[in-house]
Each structure stands twice: as C-alpha cells, then as structure tokens.
Amino acid sequence: MSRPDSIQSRMRRMAVVSCSFMAAVLAVTLALALVYNSQYKNLLYNVTTASEFNQDFKENIDLKMYYYVIESRYSEGLPIQEVQDAQALAKDLLDSTSQKDSLQAVTSVLDLCENLEEKIYQIEQTQSYDSRQMQLENNVYVLTALIQEYMYNYLYYESVQLNLLQQQISRQMAAEILLVLLLSAVLIALLVRYSVRLSRSVAQPVVDLSRRAEDVIGGDLTVREPVRSETYEIRTLSEGMEQMIARLNAQIQETTQKQASLRKAELALLQAQINPHFLYNTMDTIIWLIEANRPQAAVEMVSDLSNFFRHSLSRGEDIITLGEEEEHVRSYLQIQQARYKDILDYTIRMDPALRETRLPKLTLQPLVENALYHGIKLKRGRGCIRIASQAEGAAVLLQITDDGAGMTAARLEELNRAIEKGERVGFGLVTVHERLRLLFGPPYGLTLSSREGAGTTVTVRIPRRGKEEA
C-alpha cells in the first residue's frame, strides 16, 4: 500500500498544474453561477408561494370556530379545510426550504396546523359549553395566532435571504472577474516562489486545526484563541469554529434557562387550574350556612377559604415549607368536608420534626383532590383520606391514602408508566412528578399503589432539606 501524499507534497504539485488554473477558475465561476441561479429560483418560489397564505387566516378560523362553539345560525361547521390548506402550503414550502430560520418557521407552522386540527376535533367531541369556550380561548385562538406569526416570519426570512443572495451574487461576480484578471497577470510569476512558503504556512496550522477539532469531538467546548496562520481560509475557519463553540455554549445556557422558565410556567398553570367550581360551590355553601342561621360555621368556612388562597399565593414563592403545605391542604380538606360531610373524613399526621422540609407549593393539594374526586366520591358510603409524613434516611416520605374506589391493575400500570414517561394522563400526577424531578433529581417523585375496591396510596419522596439547603 502506497503512502498517502502529505499536505506539503500536494502544495508542491501546484507548480505542475498551474497551466490548468484558468480553466479551473472558469469552471468554478460557471458552477457558482448555476448554484446561485438555483438558489435564487428556490427562494423566489418560496416567497411567491408563501405570499399565497391567507392573510385573514386567524380571523376566519377564530370566527368560524366561535360560531361553531356558540352554535350560531351562522356556523358553517368546522374549518378543517382552511387548516388543511395551510398544512398543504407548509408542506410544499418545507420541500423547497433550506435556510435554517425559514425551515424552523415553516416546520413550526406545519406542527401547529396539526395541533390545531386536533384541538378542533377535540372541541367537536366536547359536550360542555364552558369546556368548549375554554378550549377555544386557550387552544384555538393561541394556535391560529402562532400559525399566522410563524408564516409571516417565514416570508420575512425568505425575503431577507433573497435580498442577501442578490447582493452576494453581485459582489461575487465582481470579485471573480477582478480576481481572474489579477491572477492571470501575476500567477505564473508568483506560483513557484510562493508554493514552498504556502506549503509551510498551511501544513502546521492544518495540523493544529485538526487537533482542535479532535478536542471538540471529545467534548472540550472551551473557547480558545484561533489558530495563527497566514492563510485566510484557515484563519477564517478557525475563527468560525471558536465563534460556533461560543454560540453553542450560549445556546446551552439559554436552553437551560428556558427549561427553568417552562417549569415555572407549568407551576403557574397548575395554580390556574384550580377548578373555579370549587370556589363557586364553597361560596354557595357559605350562603347556605348563613341562611340556615349558622353564622359561626360560615365564618369558619370563610376563614378556611382565605387561608387556602393565601397559602396558594405563598408570597410569590414557589418553594415553601412542609408546615405551610400542611396548612394549605388542611384548609382545603376543611372546606371539602363541610361540603361532603356525609361521605368524607380525613386525618393529617405530620411529624413536627419535618415541618421545615422544603418542597414545591401545591404538591399535596392536587393529590388530595384526586383522592377525593377519583377515590372517595366513586365509592358508596363514607370514606377517609389520610395524610402522613415520615423520615427515611436522607429522604422524607409523604403519603396520601384513601379507602375509595381504587383502580384496576391495568389502570395502575398505565398511570405509573405515564408518570415515568411524562405522558399527559392521570389527573395532574405527571405535572407534580415532573416538578419534583426537576428540583430534586431522579431519585425523587411520585409512586402509586392501589387495589380495586380498597383504595389508593400516593407516596411523595422528597429530600430532607431545610431552608438553607433548598
């Protein structure tokens, strides 16, 4: 097997192939012209096709869905065809788009159209008027706005890219003509003289650049000084690599911040999901107590309701003590027991030594709500919800146990699988579990055990951390 040519030997052969230089320059110029022409046609086609997007897309979809939800006589049915037309337009653009920002925008349009179609069918299958209105406002209106925004962004990116390409073609053609004229005059005289010098100036920087690439492949993303070289291409490549590494580090940090913001948004969403019917029913119970000449009971319920929402806010803090969480869930159970006094009992036995343990607020209340509505209320007769805490090494276990309807083994397996995979089923269990995993890591979160007809136990595992450690 022959030994591969080194970079230096290839550089020396430049003197031999100097006569073919002009032909190569002409071939490259022609190839670039063909490439630019192809790129220009693609961009022009994308801009023209994107311009066909209905500018009144959001208004049309929102209005037709509103008429459908309120069952207006002006309703024309579900606007599926408009959504599918937008999908077809996005798919057509997807096949001819290569620019990164444009590709992200049109991909987002396609994904959002698919999501919008699912939400429209979901509204069709929903019977409750309030639920349909909520889905219309929280899903359809938001998705149509995003689709329209991303399509406009796509048109903007492609238009900008088209303008840049025109400028680039003009500059490139002028540079190429000038370059050919200059190099034709001086190449033969300078080629032999600079070939040896060029080989020396290229070989070592290429070796350095190759080693730097190996370090990056090995996971070293530390930004360094670019490789020193007299060759423009190598210096530009090295500087571009370091800039790319710097941007990659910035994107990693940005992604981390976005994930944290996303989880905060999920917490805010969980708070917002406190059923307004809970407040309405509580107020109705207070009115009934007053009308029944039981003012003291009404005062106690108002106090419980005040404590419940005060602890929900928690002075804007996301992490609170177990003692505060206990007071919050106690207020909730006192209110619910007043409403369901014929079927609901509860006990709370918390270890006083664990009161300062820190955990995300609204950890226990959704689980207790599940126990009431999906356990106690589905059985006949009275039921009891038991809440307890205990230390287990460096962890704290919180258990919410009910003696309600329980669940089948298949349903239990489905919920446990959904919790581990983050699937959106299971009465808010996944959201509570993900928040705990995000804050404390994989060893912590929820586990479920249940037996049909006997009840369910949800175990919350959190680290035993005080205020200083949280």
Description:
The longest helix is centred in the middle third of the chain and has 89 residues, at 129-217. Strand 6 and strand 7 form a beta hairpin. It contains 13 helices and 7 strands. The model is unreliable at 1-8 (pLDDT under 50). The strands form 2 sheets. A 5-stranded mixed β-sheet has the order 2-4-5-7-6. Strands 1-3 form a two-stranded antiparallel ribbon. 66% of the residues lie in helices and 10% in strands. It is of the alpha+beta class and 470 residues long.
Question: How many domains would you count in the coordinates?
Answer: 3
Structural shape: elongated
Rg over CA atoms, rounded to whole Å, is 33 Å
The secondary-structure class comes to alpha+beta
Question: Key terms for this structure?
Answer:
470 residues, 10% strand, 3 domains, five-stranded mixed sheet, 7 strands, 13 helices, elongated, alpha+beta, Heat Shock Protein 90, disordered N terminus, two-stranded antiparallel ribbon, single chain
